[in-house]
Amino acid sequence: QLEVSQLEGSLQQPKAQSAMSPYLVPDTQALCQHLALVKQLAASGRFIIIIPRTVIDGLDFLKKENAGARDSIRYLEAEFKKGNRYIRCQKDVGKSFERHKLKRQDLDAWNLYKILDSCKQLTVSQGSGEDDTMGMVTIITGFQLEDPSLFSVPMQSAVQAAASASIEIKNVLEFYKQWKEMG
């Protein structure tokens, strides 16, 4: 925890950017479709990129037919080996979000809940109470979020669970654009 505290202190955040979450959790789609943007966010030194185990499993599952997944795996392995302090792998532990009889058939919703579990674990380990974890973690996704009514019902529930836990979900392109506009 001391190392994480020191790392948070070392994140160079101009005042305008302190409004952005220090922790970013990309999903499998964000890494497969927009690896270059995730790399830039990691290289900026302004964010700590957390890679949950479920995202690594998702990349592993897709690697046979998806070049983006293979590239992401290579990149993450190289960064983990180098010991990049701005990219961390997170193990599965902690309390799970309520999944309301979710079947594994809705893989997107299942994975989002698993990512939410990781985010919850992160906020619990870093925050001293419910209030100070607000805005601490943002899930960056490859999904288009403009019209959530187009999502499956389980996916809508997962997005709602994130909102009620004060965990922001942003499309990776939108997040990147917002970050660039802040300068």
TrEMBL record:
Q: What is a biological process (GO) this protein takes part in?
A: nuclear-transcribed mRNA catabolic process, nonsense-mediated decay
Per UniProt, residues of the PIN domain are 22-145
Q: Where does this protein reside within or beyond the cell? A: Cytoplasm; Nucleus
| Encoding gene (name) | Smg5_1
Q: List, alphabetically, the Gene3D superfamilies matched.
A: 5'-nuclease
A Pfam family for this UniProt protein?
A: PIN_4
MF (Gene Ontology): telomerase RNA binding; telomeric DNA binding
What keyword terms does UniProt attach to this protein?
Answer: Cytoplasm, Nonsense-mediated mRNA decay, Nucleus
Q: Which SMART domains match?
A: PINc
Q: Which domain of life is it from?
A: Eukaryota
Which cellular component terms (GO) are annotated to the entry?
A: cytoplasm; telomerase holoenzyme complex
Q: What is this protein called?
A: Nonsense-mediated mRNA decay factor SMG5
InterPro entries, per the entry: Est1/Ebs1-like, PIN_dom
